[in-house]
Design a protein that fits this description.
Chain lengths: 267, 281
């Protein structure tokens, strides 16, 4: 049996010195290669902290974070990230925003000059996949919020990261756009099979997209419950109204309520 | 554009609004000139009506006459001042950007250098000129350095602000890709600081003039400052005013150049305003 791609073992994270806020404690979880995992939890439970630890932006105060068999001791260049805000560079056109990671990631930046057409084709293909064909040379401000978020997703994927970290990527969008982008993300994941960790507070989103949903407790955060989602793919908006789907969401909702009130979660 | 499917009344209203917008745009272009010419007319009438002595405030007609009479020295001295100003300004850009990047990207440098920088900036530059003359002698260098000293601070502060306020999430995106601090400065910090930088250039270029002319007046050697000192010692007040007007005109020209470059390079930062102007007239 192979090792999980991401192993988080009894990790604690405290901000601001010994008396600082304890964001995570006894937090353990594993993510398999190519798996889509969603992390849900009450607000302020340390979900974003977890993201920062896994991508190596922060060192954990206690415990180990192991990605691809290696202990994380600095930023990993195989991670793609997208956040609630699209954080595009307003002075760059869409295509060149998407290609930003290629100018930074060590293995690509050397080849970028010589193989620019290949890389550009790759970026265009991604834009096509998320439905932004023909928008290459627009500036971000000329695009709607949803389109900017799609661009941000392309930027997170263009260097073909082994691990995709999404921190509430759709939560600033309206419901219809959001549901649209679930489909887009599922499509991307099914074609490329990256390992995905999605942090969200939208339970329907978690069940729609993930293979497995992890529930975090209130601060200090740790994983208190886990549900496998065995619904067939590709999932559609119709499947979100199926009884199995609803039952899963309902269960998760109950766990969250328990997590918020600090009760022991009974699965 | 208009007309297809519009009712005659809507069309008339649309035309009227467009005409109104055109009139307003024309007025906006003409307005600065109207104000400047109006000021001169007002000044001229005031001088004549109250019979103001030429020694106190010469009428514009007298100023322009003096300017016309002494146009060769005026021109050469202005060019001299322009040269020293631009040299000092160029040094200020180089040093200002470098120091601004250092201060904006490192808290250590910021904490260490900022107080000293503020102290330096608080010293009146007139007081520094005699020191510069002792060090560099009479010549163009005191003027160049004074222009540099006075215009350097706004550039530093603005570049530093632009770099220090890069969104933390954007930094995370890049750091998670294995970006080094220098990559972040180059890819994000510097481009992001450009609007701030150009805003500071517009201030810096005008105060650089002030610096150069201060130095030229304290140590009259060359330039428009010297010309004005010489003129005032000869009680040629109209010529002094001609010098002032030329200085003001050069300030406007340099400001416009800075603004032109700004608009060409950082249009992304001001597109909201442009759009409003385009739509609202």
């Amino acid at each position: 049996m192979s090792r999980p791609f991401v192993e988080i073992d009894n990790v604690a994270m405290r901000y601001g010195g010994v008396s600082g806020t304890l964001a995570l404690q006894n937090c353990s979880l594993n993510v398999e290669q190519g798996e889509f995992v969603a992390v849900v939890g009450p607000s302020g439970c340390g979900k974003s902290t977890l993201m920062r630890l896994v991508s190596g932006l922060w060192p954990a105060t206690e415990g180990n974070v192991i990605v691809a068999g290696q202990e994380v001791d600095g930023p990993l260049s195989m991670v793609g990230m997208a956040f609630q805000n699209p954080t595009l560079l307003p002075w760059r056109r869409i295509l060149s925003n998407v290609m930003l990671p290629l100018e930074v990631v060590p293995e690509h930046r050397k080849r970028l000059r010589a193989e620019r057409p290949m890389y550009e084709a790759r970026a265009r293909e991604l834009l096509r996949l998320v439905g932004l064909e023909g928008f290459d040379s627009k500036f971000p401000y000329q695009l709607s919020g949803g389109m900017q978020q799609r661009t941000s997703m392309c930027r997170a994927l263009v260097h073909e990261p082994a691990l995709l970290m999404l921190d509430e990527p759709f939560s600033a969008l309206d419901v219809f756009t959001r549901e649209d982008l679930w489909g887009v993300l599922q499509q991307v994941w099914m074609t490329r099979k990256p390992t995905v960790v999605l942090v969200t507070h939208d339970l329907r989103e978690a069940v729609y997209l993930a293979d497995r949903v992890l529930v975090m407790s209130a601060r200090p955060g740790r994983i208190v419950a886990e549900r496998k989602v065995d619904l067939p793919r590709p999932r559609t908006l119709d499947s979100t109204y199926a009884p199995e789907f609803q039952a899963l969401v309902h269960d998760l909702r109950r766990y969250i309520a328990m997590a918020r009130s600090g009760e022991e979660v009974v699965v | 554009m208009s007309g297809n499917g519009m009712s005659p009344r809507a069309l008339a209203r649309y035309e009227a609004m467009a005409a109104q917008a055109r009139r307003q745009r024309r007025l906006q272009t003409a307005l600065p000139w109207i104000v400047i010419i109006g000021m001169f007319v007002f000044w001229e009438i005031g001088c004549r009506a109250f019979n103001v002595s030429e020694f106190i405030l010469p009428a514009p007609s007298r100023v322009f006459a003096a300017g016309y009479r002494w146009w060769t020295p005026l021109m050469w001295d202005s060019l001299d001042t322009l040269k020293t100003t631009m040299m000092g300004f160029a040094f200020a850009i180089v040093a200002g950007v470098l120091l601004g990047v250092a201060i904006g990207s490192s808290t250590m440098v910021y904490k260490g250098l900022y107080p000293l920088l503020i102290a330096f900036n608080s010293i009146p530059k007139v007081a520094v000129v005699p020191v510069l003359i002792i060090w560099f002698g009479i010549g163009m260098w005191p003027a160049v350095i004074t222009a540099f000293l006075i215009s350097f601070f706004p550039i530093v502060v603005n570049v530093a602000t632009g770099i220090a306020t890069v969104e933390p999430e954007l930094k995370d995106v890049l750091r998670a890709l294995g970006a080094r601090p220098w990559d972040i400065i180059l890819k994000v910090g510097l481009p992001r600081a450009m609007p701030y930088f150009f805003a500071s250039l517009k201030i810096a270029v005008t105060v650089a003039f002030v610096g150069a002319i201060i130095a030229e007046s304290v140590a009259p050697n060359a330039g428009i400052g010297r010309l004005m000192m010489v003129a005032s010692s000869r009680f040629d007040v109209p010529l002094v005013f001609a010098g002032l007007i030329v200085t003001g005109a050069m300030g406007i020209v340099l400001y416009l150049i800075a603004e032109f470059i700004e608009r060409r390079t950082t249009g992304w930062a001001t597109r909201g305003q442009d759009q409003n102007l385009a739509v609202g007239g």
